[in-house]
């Protein structure tokens, strides 16, 4: 993810002092490339510790790493979308589609840019070993939970997706089965998801969180964390458009990483299920004509 995109994704999570440094980086990237941390702090009117905190907050290990990414961004001539994502009354269809497309491209690129291979490999390993995969979602993320259930069920995994923890939580007491509990909350602050994750971990269940980028309560209470970019949603959000785009892209990435490691078995199961459904349709059509 670009430095600019990362800063935009963090939004209100930055402190006032960190915002001052971030704004300076956005306004004067060429100057920053020539500065050390102390010089940046002085130019932004803050302190060196504030610069260090911002660097860590943005996900970079060192200030040098941030500068390397910033230099790459400048060299690539990245052209972030700075338009207005708000949908207006009586807006033209061309304007609406342009906004949706630009925001979708930004959200997808920034989600993929911050995917960590080690994290995905670890998640794939845990999915391999799970006897049951439980998926709990909040709000519009129900569609994401159903997507997980549909994908992994077709390749032979036992998946249960629900928005009811009363249905899912009793499964964690089954000590004879290895359970993976996947919690999906875009904000990461859903009380139900956070409480469910805490309780699942108390029973030694592997927990996975899917949230937007940044620190949040769910992120602090799961074993494996995967995150999407923070989408440029409008002030009045008529639908969870951009967050769903990013979540679906991340799930597709994890799914195909899993399939790639189990290619022959996945291929066989997909073909078998396709054959079974074709036979069902044939029999159903025959029965309606009798």
UniProtKB/TrEMBL annotation:
GO molecular function: carbohydrate derivative binding; DNA binding; DNA-binding transcription factor activity
GO terms (BP aspect): carbohydrate derivative metabolic process
Domain annotation HTH rpiR-type: ranges: 1-77
Gene3D superfamilies referenced in this protein's UniProt entry, alphabetically: Glucose-6-phosphate isomerase like protein, domain 1 (3.40.50.10490), Winged helix-like DNA-binding domain superfamily/Winged helix DNA-binding domain (1.10.10.10)
Pfam family, one: SIS
Keywords annotated in UniProt: DNA-binding, Transcription, Transcription regulation
Transmembrane segments annotated in the record for this chain: none
Superkingdom to which the source organism belongs: Bacteria
CDD domains: SIS_RpiR
Domain SIS: 123-264
Keyword Phosphoprotein in annotation: no
Protein name stated in the entry: RpiR family transcriptional regulator
Lineage start: Bacteria, Bacillati, Bacillota, Bacilli, Lactobacillales
